[in-house]
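Q: Give me a backbone?
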Amino acid sequence: MEKTKIFLDENYMPKRWYNIQADLPKPLPPVYSPRTLKRATLEELSVLFPMEILKQEVSQERWIDIPQEIRDIYAVWRPSPLYRAIRLEKALKTPAKIYFKWEGVSPAGSHKPNTAVPQAYYNMKEGTQTITTETGAGQWGSALSYATSLFDITCRVYMVRVSYEQKPYRRNLIHLWGAEVFPSPSNKTNAGRSILKENPEHPGSLGIAISEAVEDAATHEDTKYSLGSVLNHVCMHQTVIGLESKEQFKMEERYPDIVIGCVGGGSNFAGISFPFLHDKLKGDKKDLRVIAVEPQSCPTLTKGLYAFDYGDSTKLGPIAKMFTLGHDFIPPGIHAGGLRYHGASPIVSALKDQNIIEAQAYYQTEVFEAAMLFAQTEGHVPAPETAHAIKSVVEEAKKCKQTGEEKVILFNASGHGHFDLKSYELYLHGKLTDFEYPTELVKQSLKKLPKITED
């Protein structure tokens, strides 16, 4: 009998996060202030973030210690299991060996608590009373609500309106953990009110929700802002996923040939891939392929521009160099709400720009087709975001069938789809729409990028 799942004892839980900034071929470009268009200082950014988080954001140290208090909470669901997708392999008739890291075991049902807990912890240490944030499909909002409940911190969540309406049980979970949640754009902020004035039926976007959360934090004392993806410290916190996976592969005496993750902002992709990219960047695994997968309707890495842009729609947040579709681009209302972001992580963007990683984009219906196959073979119902990674896995496994290569494929199953069953119902009834890449909208959006001169 072949082993289906590989468990790690809690004693093997990572004690340090891996910071890939120490190994990048070139250092990341600096972050700029939206007010002055000059380099942002830590003092400016401290209005939004606690100082320890900012230190992690700019750190060049390869390893950052995980405080014991955080590891104690991680132990509720970590280490997460690594599964061998034997039934999916058989269904595809592929010689490839397919593995997935199952992050659906966390209390919030996704990888998001891996960074929500440390962010809440560091805010608690510095006396923060309230944290504001945005959320797309609700995974991040529910994860931060869970984390803040552990440290007696108030939490306010701005949820993209189309997802607020599509996924009512995500917002119920946010309420259950004691946080407030508002559909964005909302009437709670100047940013939200200005957008609603122009379009009362606006579907919202992550860029707009970020604007609201940033404004809320900046205008209230004892309040900080928290971001669930994109930023360097967020990607670093998620590396517990890949670090555990490496230990689990050692137990199997195997190493992946291909590592795959879906990308919206880039956090779950970073979590699974960065520890393996450490080996590639050192020169130990030069042939390792790492694939980022995104929606065809919001193809930031595959069709975006690598340029400086605002992280939010109303230009309140910091400016970073990233692959972007433009800060005021409004993605179509696909059901993978966590992938509907106009930009990508600066680190992930730099890796793509330097051809260290690859990127692929797929349509919504073909993604759900792959998710259905996975659910019917492996049993786990994946979130629509994870389904993008699964589609890529299926295609790579089919290539192995053609070539006869027994490649080892690893992907991050970043969360379950239990709150996304309405999406599956629509797919089963043929009511999911495939949105084309909105070329003209992106062209118009990219004309509004900030004029930054690198210094």
About this structure: The radius of gyration is 20 Å. The chain has a mean pLDDT of 95. The first strand starts at residue 5 and ends at 6. The longest helix spans residues 384-403.
